[in-house]
Each structure stands twice: as structure tokens, then as C-alpha cells.
Amino acid sequence: MKDPAIAEAFEATWPAAEYADAGGFRIGRATGAGRRVNSACTVQSWSPADIDDVLRIQSDWRQVAAFRVLDDETRLIAALTDRGFQRTTPTVVMQADVSALTDRRIPPVMAFAVWPPLAIQRDIWMAGEIGPERQAVMQRVVGPKAALLGRIEDRAAGAGFVAIHSGVAMVHGIEILPDWRRKGLAGWMMRRAAVWARENSADRLALAVTRANAPAIGLYHGLGFRDAGGYAYFVKP
């Protein structure tokens, strides 16, 4: 991502439990919390020997050999492809001005931002396989943060997480229960995140979504989000 504030927020608002550096790479570890916090990414210029050091650390940690690579890191993509890594889970990072999502009044009792998370929010996350390990990532975040709760048809049906770093409010872990999807709830939750962000002095909202999730990308574009960059994982089969 060329925007340094979004790049910093992306890392700071979804942190691993621990890190190790190998030359130009930083490797995260948070067992069970997903590939984003259990992969290596570049933090400065790197050499081919640094890749070997990453693989040794990941082996010692009993991790899958995995790198998170920005779309424009063509040299790294070539180096990993030559080593037999395969590209998976292409993802787009999107951003919007908070003002684009705060132009409408949110219906009463439709969406809330609270901290700490309520039991019902944790249950909704669990139903979407955002289990204790991923929820622990949220707990580690330092700085302003909130758990989003979405309600529709008189029941709690959505949960999400938002945190601020460098003036950017990054949204993670949006989950809507299956029977209440495609009813507009996610959009209202994003608007609540924007209101909360504005109240906490952030001027932009950002998120990451897999490129295969066309309905979500369409929703976010409709709300005023625009592409800010992208990445994919390179994994040893």
C-alpha cells in the first residue's frame, strides 16, 4: 500500500502476539488467529538470504511457510514463485473519507459501537469462525477501539471490530448471521463505524476484503470506498 497511514493502521489494528525480524522481513505469530498474523511481510529492503531466514523461523515456530505480499512487490513475487510458492487469497484494501458515510441518520437501535464486546457479539463472531484466537487479536490492540453490534428485525445479527491508528479507522471481523445477510445491515454497521471514527478524531475508514467476495466489494464501493492497494499470500504447498 502506497499510503503509509493506511499501511500502518493495517498492521497496528490487527497485531500478532509476537514478532521476529529476518533482514528485510517481519514475521508474526499468533497461533490459531489466521494467516494475516501468521505470515511474513517486508519492512525494508531484503535479500534472497533473508527469505531463507524467514523460512527457518517459521519452521522453528511450526508455522506454514507464508508471506503476505503487496500486489506491486514484483521482485518478491518473482523470487517466491521461483521457490515454488503459490499465490492465494488475493485481497483488496479499500478506504473512504469518514464524511462519505456520515451523511445519513442511522435508524434507532440499528447499530452500536461499544467496548468491551458483549456476549452476543462474541457469539456472532464464533458463528462466523472468528473464534477466541482472533478475538484475542482485538484485545491486543492499543488505542481507540470498538466492537460493532448490528440489529435488524428486533434481534442482534451482526458484529464487527474497528480501531484507530494514524488517523485511520480500520474495520475488521465484520460478520452477519446467515439469515440476516443482504438486508442492508452491514452498510449501517459501516456507517456506525464512521460515526465512531469521527467522534474519535479519525478522518478515514479502511478495510480489507478478499477479491472473491464480489457482493461485499460492491457494497463498499456503493458506500463510497475506493481501492487503496492489494495483497495476496504466497504459501509453500
TrEMBL record:
PROSITE patterns, alphabetized: GNAT
Q: Which InterPro entries match?
A: Acyl_CoA_acyltransferase, GNAT_dom
The cross-references to CDD domains, in alphabetical order and at most eight, read: NAT_SF (cd04301)
Q: Which residues form the N-acetyltransferase domain?
A: 96-237
A Pfam cross-reference name: Acetyltransf_1
**What PANTHER family does the annotation carry?**
N-ACETYLTRANSFERASE
**Name of the molecule in the record:** GNAT family N-acetyltransferase
